[in-house]
Amino acid sequence: MAINGQFNTDAKALNRRIVAHDKYGEKDINEWIFSNLDVARNMMILDLGCGTGKQTIPMAKAVGKDGRIVSVDISQEALNVLLEKATEENVSEQITTLCCSLDDIAIHLENERFDRVLSSYSLYYAQNPENLVKTIWETLKTGGIFFFCGPAKDNNRELKSFHYSLKGEPVPSESGGAAFMEKLGQRLVREVFRHVEVTMFENPLRFDSAEALYAYWSSYNLYENELDERFKVAAAEHFNRNSFFVTKKRVIGVKAVK
Fold this sequence. Notes:
The protein is of the alpha/beta class. It has a single domain (11-156, 172-206, 248-257), classed as Rossmann fold (3-Layer(aba) Sandwich), CATH 3.40.50.150. The chain is built from ten helices and seven strands. The longest helix is centred in the C-terminal third of the chain and has 17 residues, at 176-192. The two termini are 24 Å apart.
């Protein structure tokens, strides 16, 4: 069930989205993630689809010198950014990076065992998520926690409505990551884990200028080059009438205990 998108492996676009979430969002998604993951010192943690390290870096700090984070991503560019950040934050010794697809982690982690596994906005990129979930279960220690999260069905509904209005089209039915998070992903973990809990996170993003809104849209998988100028004009018109443009990140989290 591979889900493709223009910016899925673009480290610069990912960083722009992260910066936007931090600057314009009202809440911190990491606080929510870590409250479900229950990270402690000396833990071994597998971070799947780690990107540029938004969760890896704070987890490395939390586990301390005797803990370890194995960070996996298909983009070497993103991993290079992560390693630069890790060096700056003095946590590089706790982090091991692995550049491969999610479907190939079993080959590289055959003898590894982890206290926690995190997959933030990444599990649904696997070609075979059923095998991946089984691999995660096998790599977890007894009592270990697997937490994965991704978009809910109404994620960024406001921005999507704005985007598709420029095309004169209705917002299409949810597919891809949202469909996976709403149904298939939950079913797969319930088949192998003894306890599964589903939680929700909602974070309003309040953009205060047409330039800020455009910067976010142009780093997001909605982006279409042929709409570029039309979007800029529509964004400027919106801010002639309004002080803010608010769209909401709606996220599903699934906590599974072995």
